[in-house]
Prior knowledge:
Layout lengths: L3 E2 L25 E3 L1 E9 L10 E2 L3 H8 L5 H13 L6 E11 L5 E7 L2 E7 L11 E10 L1
Antiparallel strand pairs: 1-3, 2-6, 3-8, 4-5, 5-8, 6-7
Helix pairs in contact: 1-2
Amino acid sequence: MLVLLLTASGCGDDTGEGGDAPGGVPGAPASTAIEEVAVLTGTSAGGHVTTEPTLLPDEPAVRAYADQFRNDRLQGEIVRAARRTDVPEGRRLAAAVVAIGCEVPTRVTGTATGDQLTVRAVLPSPTKQCFAPITSVALVLVPA
């Protein structure tokens, strides 16, 4: 399984030291990167794009999340990928619909600042025309 460490771009202290958030707000919690586990896709699967991932603490939560999609193959891929994921101590599994359209994300980026989790798709330049939209779901590891 390929797990990529994602970093957020922007200004501010990126050394990870101190308690200041990007932008120099004293005392604000520092940002932590979110780890991409997988980007799974399904044609005409439905869903709604969001930047806030849904926590998936156990298999019933994973199945409930997967059940929202109209594509059985995507549902199965979400459940299988979640089962294969080794969630290390100090992390939690989460998922988000990061794109719906003709282009599939090349990767996702994300940060966790305090209780705020954010994940976004990095999409290639539009080059395709499609007959049905592709739903892209990112599985990510977030801080516990």
